[in-house]
Amino acid sequence: MGNTKLANPAPLGLMGFGMTTILLNLHNIGVFPMDGVILAMGIFYGGIAQIFAGLLEYKKGNTFGLTAFTSYGSFWLTLVAILLLPKMGLADAANAQFMGVYLGLWGVFTLFMFFGTLVGNRALQFVFLSLTVLFALLSVGHLVDNGEGIIHVAGWIGLVCGASAIYLAMGEVLNEQFGRTVLPIGEKH
């Protein structure tokens, strides 16, 4: 029983994060309105699927993966709640500056998590570094008056960040599936 190989849950979490991040940032750059597509992905794939991935990382003894995926899954669920609660009459709309503080706290968390990636592969480092920049720009964009331009720039960073997470997820899946490097992810040796 001790020889049972466990599957790698990271690609599930990375895909949930990456795809949902791309959808939200297509909104941030002004391509699509905030609608049910983003909110549904935020609940089910960005939120719940990432939390599942984090809990599966627990089983593998990966504290970093547990912390990252359950936290970012919870980020997506809280973000959707912040957007939906006012529409349901359960809360006032979020204050823009307070939203900036919320995003800033996520940026601080992400910066510390980035330091944890320095022992990992280059692709993971890029995901967390670009996510740190994304949160910083989104935070500033909400804290300042007329920050729409900053949020627009953040949206482009978010598209790159989300795409990098998808690339890493597919690199991990395909490299394992084929037993060789199909998509290089900058492994540490």
TrEMBL record:
Q: Which domain of life is it from?
A: Bacteria
Q: Does the keyword Chloroplast apply?
A: no
* UniProt membrane topology term: Multi-pass membrane protein
The regions listed as transmembrane in this protein's record are 12-31, 37-56, 63-85, 97-119, 126-144, 150-170
**Which InterPro entries does this one have?**
Gpr1/Fun34/SatP-like, GPR1_FUN34_YAAH, SatP
| Cellular localization per UniProt | Membrane
The family database entries (Pfam families) matched by this protein are listed as: Gpr1_Fun34_YaaH (PF01184)
**Any idea which UniProt keywords this protein has?**
Membrane, Transmembrane, Transmembrane helix
GO BP term, pick one: succinate transmembrane transport
What GO molecular function annotation could you give as one example from this UniProt entry? acetate:proton symporter activity
Could you give one GO CC term from the UniProt record?
Answer: plasma membrane
Name the family: Belongs to the acetate uptake transporter (AceTr) (TC 2.A.96) family.
Provide the protein name: Acetate uptake transporter
- Name the source organism: Silvania confinis
Q: What gene does this protein come from?
A: satP
